[in-house]
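worker-03 picked up job from queue 'complexes'. Input manifest follows; two sequence lines, order preserved.
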Amino acid sequence: MTAYARGDNAAFDQLYARHQAGLYRFVRRLLGSALNAQTDEVFQDTWLRVIHARARWAPQGASFRTWLYTLAHHRAIDLLRRSGREIAFDAHDGADGAPWEPDATAWQHWPAPPGAAPHSDELAFWRRAGERLIACLDQLPAPQRSAFLLHHEDGLAVSEVASALEVGFETAKTRLRYAMSKLRTCMGAYLAPLTAEPGSGAR
Amino acid sequence: MTPTDARAPRADGGDAPRDPWLAQAFRHAPDARAAPPPELSARILREARAAEVPMAAPTADTPRAAPFAQAARWPWLRAAWEALARPSVAAGFASVLLATVVGVMWRDRLLDEALPRPEPSARSGPAPAPEARDGATATRPEARGGTTASPQASARPAAPAMATSGTPAPEVGAATPPVLAAPKTAPPGAATPPPQASPQAFPERAREIAPSRPRQERVAASDRASAAAGPVAANADRGGESTAAEATRDDATAAPRDTRGAAARDAAAGPAAKAAARSAPAAAPRAQADPAATGGGSPLTALLARVDAAPQHWRWQRDAAAQPMTPALQAWLQRLDQATASRWRSAPGVPPGDSAAPGLQLRRDGAMVATLRIDAAAAWLIPADSSQPAAMATLTSEAAAALSAALADASR
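worker-03 finished. Artifact:
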């Protein structure tokens, strides 16, 4: 980005090639299925902000990726607010304020994470799991969803997640914990486990 | 590897563990291979290439400060601009600016309360007798402009003349100031009547200034006299509000106290008056001390010059309401001036009132300036300022009668 700010247009091509797929998925999943049609708009606006901010670019500790996802997150939250789908940032399901703990027994029947070449049956299982995960993501509040996506899908550390979401470290960590708990429960309750086979985990 | 093992927390550089099952599910999600449309990517890349290279070095400026990117070389300018852009600072600056503009607009102007009031109607009876100068029965403008501020205004410049004359002051001008104006203008020691110039000094002064001076010179001298806060001039020019300050403006021996007002008045007085003031700086104190020495040789000459200079500001009053100055009355004043010539003397006292022969009161902008009275053997000029002595010019009985008849005609 520094090279692009100095006028090297080829540097932007590299930036775009490196981050475009992950950012597009992040935006798409953060907006959810209801606002999938707006993914292109948010994605484009994010990159245009990067382009217009080249004159003011100054690395101040955060990486370009963190800043890029911050821009995308802001834009997506704006859209969610306008659509009335955003849930309050501090909304938690626990009425007493205690973290919600999922029932983890369903996970005992899942197959082990596959290796490089999963079996065809397992592939079908994981595809159904992927579909289910996307559906479960839609049920998460936007703050937890964005924290989970940044951490699990885009590989940001918790500190980077906190920076990208402009919240404290503990807040980011709490959101992650809530998101994980809800997703596990959602996935375990509705994903039909395969019959367990010896040596291959559960089937 | 069992699922339990896989879900065990993994140290990731101190980071929170990632769930391998969820990660695997993500990898097989329907949108796992989602990517921006090629045309969208092409549009973004085109925009990136089309973006102009910034002129200034990249900084962390906000978009609001972008127009000042070139001003990065002058950080103090940017800091000042940003400070001014803050609402509180901007509001304070605007207030100061507005106050400055208002102050400049009202610079050297009198407040409304200080402006002369409209001419009060005097239909109720004859003109007030000369004794009314003491303020007890005078109308309010007279009280404000005529008898209140002048005592101390003339007392200070008149001191040198008093020292040379050595003549005790008469009790004529020792009238008590009105109660309303006394606290505003009179210092503790101002109750003492001002000294009066010796009557013997008048002929000498009269010889210095010939009565046949040109009219323009008379006007200039009159302006000078008014600037010197003579009893008549101070009342008429400023309505008496700042008489004390004006009394010392052109006094070369006094320290300037109101230089701003003096500058404005000098600008308005015209070059002739300025030249006159420069040529005779010491004349002002003497003119104040001796009303007979003001203007063009006599107090009436000076008064007449002022009337001729701006007749629209003048009104006269005898036994009815005040009337605008007319050419006929101006002609009568000239006739009286010619008849009295250089015979004016400081009078030892005010003549007794005569209801049968009421005086001719002269007012400028509503403020009483002087009263002229013709009796059987003399003409009297009684300034409205009680601190100034009256002047008297002897007349023959025929001349007095003729002047009285002419006044009756002119004021008809």
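worker-03 released lock.
The CA atoms of residues 22 and 154 of chain A lie 7 Å apart.
The domain at 2-83 of chain A is CATH 1.10.1740.10 (Rna Polymerase Sigma Factor; Chain: A).
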